[in-house]
Specification:
- By secondary structure, this protein is of the alpha/beta class.
- It has two domains: 54 residues; 258 residues, Alpha-Beta Barrel (TIM Barrel).
- It has a nine-stranded parallel beta sheet with strand order 8-9-10-11-12-13-14-7-15. Strands 2-3-1-4 form a four-stranded antiparallel beta sheet, with helices on one face. It has a two-stranded antiparallel sheet with strand order 5-6.
- A hairpin with a 2-residue loop joins strand 5 and strand 6.
- Helix 2 packs parallel to helix 3.
- The longest helix is centred in the last third of the chain and has 17 residues.
- The chain is globular and about 65 Å long.
- The relative contact order is 0.13.
- Bound molecules: phosphoenolpyruvate and manganese (II) ion.
């Protein structure tokens, strides 16, 4: 249950109620908000006089539910907005991993030349083998921050475990929680302690319920700026790397108030399919796309097979603009 406390109820009283109900306490849109487990279905008599309004939830999808807040959340990514009533589709581009200054500078130049503003690049890579390239770590973060300064870009990079969060908050504008990391409570709880936007990727074996509940850790912990990212789930199919769950996207659009970004690159795992899939994503009217592009994909240190080269990325942007326009969105 979500409870809005009446204006004028003092801090000590709110803390006492919060303790009594074993609730989270956040400030949201000018309100003192308490969130209990969803199995609480009635306001206890002992607190009825303190409560202005309340929402009974049918599951632990609560703050993210449209039943609580119908309007999509508006999220600021650097100097652009997505969600809310904006009808913006942000095109986030950049390599899978930051590999060198020269490489990430070329990615920054590409985005600048296309008037795009959000640069991606992993520095802590959650690889399936310990022998694969693990990312440049803090040196990579410093390169991203340098690009942010020099090119006025907004940067997004992923946390592989909770010990990276402080550095990522310092050097990056948006925190990415990867598909393998989204069950990590340490990361989710740490993301709740900042107000920087957090992009949570769906694990490849994660139900929609679990996916949205991961966002509740961040929302109920006090950070309202969460974006969901569908990046493909594992099915019986092996010809493509994963299966992009567009049905799931339709469900999220219908039932949650969180902006949604789609990642066709990781879903298909092969560059040939990224453009057609991206067209389908944009046609759904989504808040953003995450596309991997590399100056020379053949030599990429991670995800080489799916990264577009820069000419392919330029073409993709051009094609997606038309699709976005057709469904009433702006590609930015
Ligand atoms: C990535 O964005 O490079 C990445 C590792 O993605 P995912 O967590 O979706 O596998
Ligand atoms: Mn990748």
């Amino acid at each position: 249950m979500i409870l809005h406390i009446k204006n004028g109820v003092n801090r000590e009283r709110i803390e006492a109620i919060s303790k009594e109900l074993n609730a989270f306490h956040i400030h949201y849109q000018g309100k003192e908000v308490l969130i209990t487990a969803s199995n609480v279905k009635e306001v206890p008599d002992s607190v009825a006089n303190d409560v202005e309004s309340y929402w009974v939830a049918d599951s632990d999808i609560q703050l993210a539910s449209k039943k609580y807040q119908q309007e999509k959340r508006e999220i600021q990514l650097g100097n652009i907005l997505i969600g809310g009533s904006t009808k913006n589709t942000v095109l986030i581009g950049g390599p899978c991993s930051v590999e060198s200054e020269e490489q990430i500078r070329q990615s920054s130049e590409l985005l600048k030349s296309l008037k795009l503003s959000v640069l991606r690049g992993g520095c802590y890579k959650p690889r399936t083998s310990p022998y694969s390239f693990q990312g440049m770590g803090k040196d990579g973060l410093k390169l991203l921050a340098k690009m942010r300064e020099e090119y006025g870009l907004t940067v997004i990079t992923e946390a592989r475990d909770a010990t990276h969060i402080d550095d990522i908050i310092e050097y990056s504008d948006i925190i990415q929680v990867g598909a393998k990391a989204m069950y990590d409570q340490g990361i989710l709880r740490a993301c709740a302690k900042t107000t920087k936007p957090v992009l949570i990727k769906r694990g490849f074996g994660t139900t929609l319920q679990e996916f949205v509940q991961a966002s509740e850790f961040v929302l109920a912990g006090g950070n309202p700026n969460v974006v969901l990212c569908e990046r493909g789930i594992r099915t019986f199919e092996t010809k493509t790397r994963f299966t992009l769950d567009l049905c799931g996207v339709a469900w999220l659009q219908e039932y949650t108030n969180l902006p949604i970004i789609l990642d066709p690159s990781h879903a298909i795992g092969h560059a040939y399919g990224v453009l057609p899939l991206a067209r389908a994503c944009v046609a759904m009217g989504v808040d953003g796309l995450l596309i991997e592009a590399h100056p020379n994909p053949k030599v990429a240190k991670s995800d080489a097979s799916q990264q577009l080269n820069h000419q392919e990325f330029v073409n993709l942007k051009q094609e997606l603009e038309t699709v976005a326009k057709a469904v009433g969105y702006n590609l930015i």
